[in-house]
Design goal:
By secondary structure, the protein is mainly α. The model has no long low-confidence stretch (mean pLDDT 91). The relative contact order is 0.05. The longest helix has 24 residues.
Amino acid sequence: KSQRYLHQYLELNPGDQQVRLKIAADIAAAGDPRGALMLVEEGGTISTADADVTTLQYAGHFALAAAREAIENAGQNGNGDVSPDVQGLLEKALGYYNRAFDASTDEPDVTMLTNMLVAYRLLERFDEAIAFGERAIQRVPNDATLLSAYADALAAGGRKDQAVAMRNRVTQIDPQYAVNARLGSWQLEDGNLSAAQAAFRKALQNGEVASGDDLARPIFAQGYNNHHKNKRYDTAISYYNVAREFATSSATTGMINFFHGYALFQKALEMQKPSTAASARASLPVFQEAKRWLEQAGGYTEQAQQRQQLLQNVDQYIEIQNALIKRG
């Protein structure tokens, strides 16, 4: 009833920006940020040069929330290749935010500053994100959330060393701030597996992730995509061993074990090609270890049929190697 009254009041008093913002905020809270943005923009005052900072901030918040909603609905991860609709919403959010930032005489709203860095990053305008971040932390130098967002911008722009230094500054300001999972991700991207492992251990200990699977899967993916696919089986296996440490579900553990066994099987296939007693002695323990890991991959139901076929193939090759060794 109160919402209906406010809508009726707004129809009679379209220039009452406070009521307009109140209704728009309720609309956004109900799950329609795009509708909230439309209501604010319908007021007319936002397009004028003297639009107040609060209205501009609200419009920016609604535009960014609508963009994120569109990214989520489209199944995108928000890492580049955004749709024209999302791009337009992000550009609109930045437009409103920048006007509010320039018009603000007091200390600017940290949520707005952080959101601006997020919007720049989603648009992959990394140089602009870094340049704005430098301005933002001059205005608000000791906010952990803002500094963390700036560190993300630095990392996205390829300045990993500066990003790590900024993350260290975050922990100095707030020792409880969740930084280790992000640090681990950066180390993982740079191929520093041991440093990523150490950071992920701290992240898990500090409760920075909902589940160890959230750490295991990116480690596994890095090992598979960067090394297994390129036939660097031993390196891939080192990633699988680390990923297994963090895996909590039977599905994730089974997946890691499956590809660990598969990597060993592929490695053993190359080793046994001379088909001599010597090559059989070298490849037999590798085939046996492959079998051991494949047998422990039952939780990976997506490849259940292929796993059974691989186990049959491994058994055949084990028989062949034993025969070669006996003949030799």
